[in-house]
Amino acid sequence: MHTTPAAVLYRRLFVYLKNYLTLFLLAVLSMVVVAATMPLFARLMQPLIDEGFVAKNMAMMQWLPWAIVGLFVVRGVFNFINEYASSHISGHLVQTIRQELYAKLLRLPGNYFVRHSSGRVMSRIMNDAGQIADAGFNVITVIAKDGVSVVALLVYLLYLDWQLTLITLVALPAIGFCVRVLSRRLRHLSSQSQQFNGEMTQSLHESINGSRVIKIYGGQAHEQARFSRVAADVRRNGVRQTAVSAASSGITLLMVAAALSLILYFAAQRAQQSGFSAGDFMSFLTAMIMMFDPIKRITGVIQSLQRGLAAAQSVFDFLDEAEEPADGTLPLSEPVGDIVFDNLIHRYPDAERNSLNGVSFTVPAGKVYALVGASGCGKTTLVNMLPRFFDPDSGSIRIGGLDIRQTDIAALREKMALVSQDVVLFNGTIASNIAYGAQSGASEAEIIAAAQAANAWEFIQALPQGLHTPIGENGMKLSGGQRQRIAIARALLKNAPILILDEATSALDNESERLVQAALEKLMAQRTTIVIAHRLSTVENADCIVVMHEGRVVEQGTHAELLAANGRYADLRRFQAA
Known about the structure:
Blueprint: H1 6-17, H2 21-54, H3 58-107, H4 110-115, H5 118-144, H6 150-160, H7 172-209, H8 211-216, H9 220-272, H10 278-290, H11 294-319, E1 339-346, E2 356-363, E3 368-372, H12 379-385, E4 394-399, E5 402-403, H13 409-414, E6 416-420, H14 430-434, H15 444-453, H16 457-461, H17 480-494, E7 498-502, H18 510-524, E8 528-532, E9 544-549, E10 552-557, H19 559-565, H20 568-577
Parallel strand pairs: 3-8, 3-9, 6-7, 7-8
Antiparallel strand pairs: 1-2, 1-4, 4-5, 9-10
Helix pairs in contact: 2-3, 2-10, 3-5, 3-9, 5-11, 6-10, 7-9, 15-17, 17-18, 19-20
């Protein structure tokens, strides 16, 4: 795997930050102010020792504790500004990158998903995009806040002299109350975060599994808008969680600072009574400063930086992937003409043999052609080339005499409808699944007509909310036959002149198959149809049956002609009848 130089990755990340440059500068300025409070605090120790312990100047000691409180108020305010601004920028950065990754996902060619697992793609969008913030913000934050660890200093200060720890009890009840109230709010926001992340994962999972349906029905804009809404919810929730956490830290820090000011005051009182020497007090401060551990901090920054850079490289590699070809600009003829498959050759990446070996045949307009053959003979590969989910290595496909690589890919898919064995339904209502993508503006009357033609209206009417009944993820609330008829209704509503049926009646019971087959016959009427069939009995009435074997066309003809030829088709027929 190649490694992109860190400077290159940071230059690409800076492009995203340019839109938030003012807020970014405010965050940096706030970090500088927070970091400056540490040496200022150390500076205040000098008059404390000289005037309070040595010169016994009580006038100095009356305002010095208030100065310390004021210093920590400034620190708390600017720390909140820094945390909120950084979270706002990083949240928008992550949201923007996630939306770009998702848009890229919808434009990738089909063979990308052959070469990459869906889990890795999901990880890039869900996890890697979030880790990029580590590369951009953690290093700056740590450097600007170098040496700052106020709470640790206070803890060590109290540990060194247990008698002074009693003073902290004054602040503990108030701190506990604030933490309790803010923790409830944070827990609620965390629950919301889990819900939003679940919705995002679900949307992403559906889009990967349903990529073909999204593309062929023109659903890219709809899915992009849906994902953007969920991504915005996740971003807003993250900013709110950070705001609550920052408020909790600021309030706690202020109260600890008040306790610290009391500690210093009473320590000076003890010094006047010879109960606490100047040397002891200097040791107190020196030990407090020495507890700071820069090596561990720097090591942690390096780890975060490397994780962020690795995530950035993963994200940018994905964004740089080749997209679906957009070289064609010509429209298809009206009406759509014959489909010609001309000497198609194709091999999947890392495959040992070709999936297609010189496939050639013609599908006349308005005819029904069936593709049959054993599993792995190339049927699905062939029909996936028709809507250009991927292109052949050589050869061409022409529709009406025009090479489909010369056509506009969106216009090409507009002319096609797909009904497959693996029905893809989305987590919505029955109506939204029938009127999907480019057909989302269809009227309810048009949706009902499509459902009636698909033999789906009877069971839809029996559902609690009819067309507006939620069907669950991928239609889990419906039976296999019902899901198949919803897919047929979707294709009927699209009313495309070219129809692809990919084993649409397999794995159904007899009654469901009868209803689905009747709906398919209505769907195929006056359309150019290519059917992939496993059960040969379902394609006996096709105008032509194309028999494939090991990526080649070995026979073609009508059912009767192929039986009379007593070749490969007849063998398949006898095998299924046995």
